[in-house]
């Protein structure tokens, strides 16, 4: 649905939030061999992208690029024959059973997404001039190599052979992208309540506990140690890269274990939506980055010079709160390489009027958001007034929290919880 707009609408700015691409596990199942996955980028294996070799070549020239500390110490593309923990990959399978964590293809997926955005926003809508400058791009990433590399891959697909002198990636220490507004006791309170809900649900699932116990027996460690190693992270990598689950002399971890844990995760997601404890955390967790975004949109709507294309290369724990805060209850868990896009449009027939459109993985979800759910019933315009989004971030998010707070600081320090 990206690029679909009435002929008299002009694209003003685009704000892109992505989850990094397919990665190697963050955890290892105790006493088992790490899955053997090659993280080098090579042209003679699938999946492939025509710009893959050019991307690798261009990254090798980026040593003089401008990155905010500590990003300058990170590798610009994956290059280890045996992947390191959490490293971006090239290869993965698309497996229907993995739909809740739909697998992408590491670097290649972001090259494809970047090219898609280039065709829409640059070739069709001329979002950036041919002589674009550094201050027309806003690039931000966490301090993980997988987010920096994902951001660079998407950027290369979007702006092939970009001038390194025009690129400046800002470092975001927090996965919530909360910048200088990260201290929020009430947000942490909501998170503790949500974690308590998760714990109680797990205690009620006897089949899950038996499964963890059986897996712990196979790898010969205490059940508590096995559970703490978050085995589903490694199992997903085995499954989606078509690598056999690990075996020991006590037996093999298998699909029956995988299915039980995955089923519980789906049930946990369903209950999370019902109990709404996560929503309080999401509203406060997402507010700083949404506030930044509407600030950029407002400056662009006023015609002030500034960023026309913003890219945040982030994690699932970044996108999940934003999706929940926006009221997108039907949105699936942010898969690898998921993208959430805010478009700002101007009505040329009424230049003072600006509208926003929100897309999740290419699907228009504008009228599924809590601040614009009923607007299409009152207007023929296929978008939502910018004022609705601004009012939501400046006021309605705090109203939804209750407690009488009217700003982020007050909501974060509300007494009586």
Automatic annotation (TrEMBL):
Query: What Pfam families does the entry give?
Result: His_Phos_2
Tell me how this protein assembles.
Interacts with B3GAT3; the interaction increases the 2-phosphoxylose phosphatase activity of PXYLP1 during completion of linkage region formation in a B3GAT3-mediated manner.
Protein family membership: Belongs to the histidine acid phosphatase family.
Q: Can you name a GO cellular component term? A: Golgi membrane
Which molecular-function annotations from GO does this UniProt entry contain?
Answer: phosphatase activity
This molecule's function is given as: Responsible for the 2-O-dephosphorylation of xylose in the glycosaminoglycan-protein linkage region of proteoglycans thereby regulating the amount of mature glycosaminoglycan (GAG) chains. Sulfated glycosaminoglycans (GAGs), including heparan sulfate and chondroitin sulfate, are synthesized on the so-called common GAG-protein linkage region (GlcUAbeta1-3Galbeta1-3Galbeta1-4Xylbeta1-O-Ser) of core proteins, which is formed by the stepwise addition of monosaccharide residues by the respective specific glycosyltransferases.
Topology in the membrane? Single-pass type II membrane protein
- The record's principal subcellular location, in a coarse class, is Golgi
Q: Which InterPro entries match?
A: His_Pase_clade-2, His_PPase_superfam, Histidine_acid_phosphatase
Q: Which UniProt keywords apply?
A: Glycoprotein, Golgi apparatus, Hydrolase, Membrane, Signal-anchor, Transmembrane, Transmembrane helix
Localization, per the record, is:
Golgi apparatus membrane
Keyword Glycoprotein in annotation: yes
Reactions that this protein is recorded to catalyse: 3-O-[beta-D-GlcA-(1->3)-beta-D-Gal-(1->3)-beta-D-Gal-(1->4)-beta-D-2-O-P-Xyl]-L-seryl-[protein] + H2O = 3-O-(beta-D-GlcA-(1->3)-beta-D-Gal-(1->3)-beta-D-Gal-(1->4)-beta-D-Xyl)-L-seryl-[protein] + phosphate
Can you say what this protein is called?
A: 2-phosphoxylose phosphatase 1
**Does this UniProt record's set of keywords contain Glycoprotein?**
yes
GO biological process terms, semicolon-separated: chondroitin sulfate proteoglycan biosynthetic process; glycosaminoglycan biosynthetic process
